[in-house]
Design goal:
Blueprint lengths: L3 E5 L3 H14 L3 E5 L3 E5 L6 E5 L14 E5 L3 H13 L3 E8 L5 E7 L5 E7 L1
Helix pairs in contact: 1-2
Length: 123
């Protein structure tokens, strides 16, 4: 259902460095970019993630209640993504671990612009 998600950024170069490494950990690369926008994903049409400087020229802001969930391969990848995000200037929003019943394992963090993300796996 979701084609892609776009997050605002104050600093495209800084965001690119953050997301290039997160995407590389997940085996994904850039597939589209311009002077104000970069997207990571697969050419096969899978959902992707983009960062952009706002089109209207106004400052970016973090969406209250907005979060992007990154599907990891396994718990070890959740752990690696979380540690990598923090090492790249991200901030902690919840260390890796089980959440609720049903095998949901996740870690929560914010990118350097304050956008909230998580890495998760089911089962």
């Amino acid at each position: 259902m979701i084609g892609y998600v776009t997050l605002g950024t104050k600093d495209l170069k800084k965001s690119a460095a953050f997301y290039d490494k997160i995407a590389a950990e997940m085996g994904i690369g850039r597939f589209m970019e311009s002077d104000s926008f970069i997207a990571w994903g697969s050419a096969d049409g899978s959902a992707g993630l983009g960062v952009t400087q706002p089109f209207d020229g106004k400052p970016m802001s973090v969406g209250n209640g907005v979060m992007v969930a990154l599907a990891a391969k396994d718990k070890a990848e959740v752990d690696r993504i979380y540690k990598l995000a923090l090492s790249l200037g991200g901030t902690d929003e919840g260390a890796p671990g089980p959440r609720g019943d049903g095998g949901f394992y996740a870690a929560y963090f914010r990118d350097p612009d304050g956008n909230k993300l998580n890495a998760f796996v089911m089962g």
